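Notes, Module 5: Reading structure tokens.

Key idea: the token line is not a picture. It is a compressed description, and you learn to read it the same way you learned to read a sequence, by spotting repeated patterns. We will look at two proteins. The first is printed below with its tokens.
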Amino acid sequence: MLPCYVVLDLETTGANPVSDRVTEIAAVRIEGGREVARWSTLVNPAISIPPFIQNLTGIHNAMVADAPRFEQAATRLLEVLEGAVLVAHTVRFDHGFLKNEFERLQIDLRVKTLCTVRLSRKLYPQYRGHGLDAIMQRHGLYTAERHRAMGDVDMVLAWLRQATQEFGAETLQARASELLGSASSVPSQLETPIKSIPDTPGVYLFFGEGPLPLYVGKSVKMRSRVMSHFQADHSVGREMRIAQEIRTVQWRETAGELGALLLESRLVKEMQPVYNRQLRRLNSLCAWRLSADPRARPLLTLVSTDELDSRDLDSLFGPYRSKRQALDALRNLAAERALCPQALGLESGKGRCFAQQIGQCQGVCCGLETPERHHLRLQVALAAQRLQAWPFPGKVGIREYDARTDRTDIHVFEHWCHLATVHDEAELEQALQTHSPLAFDLDSYRVLVKRLLAPGAAMRGLIRL
């Protein structure tokens, strides 16, 4: 198949290459079509093997108790791999574990890889299943050592011999060489050709077997960003899980980064992908409203975004994801700035508050500080958290244009709320005539503040409507 390659299989304590460990290694080295070395060993993972894995592989804790640690087996493994292509069924799994194990030894493993799942797809495109069990059933192969490292290596070798007999050595070598020259880090089960994904701004969606996406992401270069997920999966547990589950990729192009940010935020909230975390929460936000009366008690009232009018944001401070987060932030601010917990509504009662008794309040609660001065200090303390007033008299549009695709997007906003994204004057006119409730979204607000108000922010593409 190739001048020199090593067929390898690992058994492990689980599927996460960052936190799980290797329990067994098997490798057979082939040079010039002949087997020249065969080696296998159990490995003490230094962590307990979960019951499920014990039942699957038959490798239990007592079996590996006296086995060598990975660092003791590493030298022999490097000798077997020297100058060879690493071949494995779902090679990214085995390669990911080896990369992490060697990194713990401060060794940078550099080896070319070939996935026999992808090779099976090239040779037998008429079949859907290309896992080892499916291949064994299809080709009449059997082993009593399934899910043991050498047993699985022997099954891969037996299948390669059958494929060589069926297609010929030259065809097999040609298909293998094509895979070596392509994006070897792409998951073997991915049905979407990577080359079909445009390297333009937009949002990409990873799908597994189900109807809802596993992950939604955005980039100004979608194809490059998608590839980066697969190239980092050996060191990031989430990326490895995505790579194991992904089946297809869909995408939606935009004219620029702003459009991609807005679309990503909306799709994540609508579709709730399992591997998105930061943007998944809906508008369950709250903010502090400061009373204009220095003598009001409490000075601050917590309001939810359901009660917010986006036209009055400059009287609010925050926002916060939860009531608990808001209270914690206010307690910290009171302690840092010697503000009165009683006046802020953090402590009940009258007279001297507890903080004043221990010297951490300047005494507005007992007449030692005027309400006006305390109110002013509170405003100064909260200044960094003040929500920005909408800086325009009405609606605005932000135009983005991508010369590569000749695409124009105009994003329409009012009072920090994203009203629509349109592509021509007719759609723009319709958006301006549509009157819908303004829905405040924290993520859109932050994107716009950075775009419009941050020091040095670019105002290009701004249209007053």
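Here is the second protein, with the sequence above and the tokens below, as before.
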Amino acid sequence: MQNSKQPQIILKKGREESLLRFHPWVFSGAVQRMDGVIQEGDVVPVYAHDGRCLGYGHYQVGSIAVRMLGFGTEEMPEWTGTEWKLPVSFWVRRFQVALSVRTDSGILSEQTTCYRLVHGEGDGLPGLIVDVYDGVAVMQAHSAGMFLARFAIAEALREALGESLVAVYDKSEGTAPFKAGLDLKDGYLYCKDESEGSRVVLENGHRFWVDWEKGQKTGFFLDQRDNRQKVGELAKGRSVLNLFCYTGGFSIYALAGGAKDVTSVDSSKVAMEMVDRNVAVNFDSEVAARHTSLCTDAIDYLKQVPKDRYDLMIVDPPAFAKHRGALNNALRAYQRLNAAAIERVAPGGFVFTYSCSQVVDQQAFALAVFSAAAQTGRRVRILDRLNQPADHPVNIYHPEGSYLKGLLLYVE
């Protein structure tokens, strides 16, 4: 164990087991004591009750006391005399490994210029998201520690990505913990040239306008890439309804796949304007004429849709539950929404249905959809179970990272 004057966290006896299994969270109830002065966001080593060094991570106030960045004594942070500090080389190594994962898994190509470079725990960097849009890296800090490290992160991104990096934009204002007293304001940490805040990127050859400054999340929902491709493969000759469409990702794939007609529905006027831009940048007027944009409440629209009007539906709502206290209400909402979709889809139709709520696991979501199907009395088959793509990897020691779950249903 280190000098007790140095900041460090000591766990209660027997509470080190999860860290020995490489789970990246230390819960506050496992902490016996904290030595030295530890502020939220500080890098701090963690020790077992018997003095074994278990690793280090970012300290935060709340039920999760430490988000682990490393285990054992490997790559331990440097003690400067006043604080534990991670060198820029630490971040560079992590980003280089993450980039290799994306390259080796075949995600990056001339046909796909947008991808997630860092997916929190899935890439050994809990609390950090980095999405890349044709050379623009957009970071979101979900912890005080990652926000405080933003300048080192930007410097490391420049080294790891080299000349391909155009800008680094910090979009943590809506994600970092505001109670930590941080100066949260979105803005550029690095910009090679004057940036316009949006640009056209490619995903599997399809063009999408991405606005990382004003759009939701980092500007685009990259986690549905593989599932959009599957919609495109099944859309030919079908009438498609894309609910909660945001900027129309599923709609573009459906039109490209030969859909007879596509209706995109979202309550956001800004999102619907972006849908129209995406249709225009991908298709000529003849194909674009098969598309309809509706700025209205998706659930209300679904309830009044004539039965049999659509034979392929995409039901991809925002997270109904962001914490466990909202779980039961969320499951009831998923049941009602899916019952409406299953009841109204045409015979022989497909329903792609999703949940992006981390607290809703695969089994609970499947049960909600089962209950919805039973409510309608229709014959329903599960053709596929859908997940997040390879650039949203799940740490095998952190199954909670498997947040996106979906089902492809066939309804007789």
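Summary for the second protein:
- The chain has three domains: 8-76, 88-200, 221-411.
- The radius of gyration is 23 Å.
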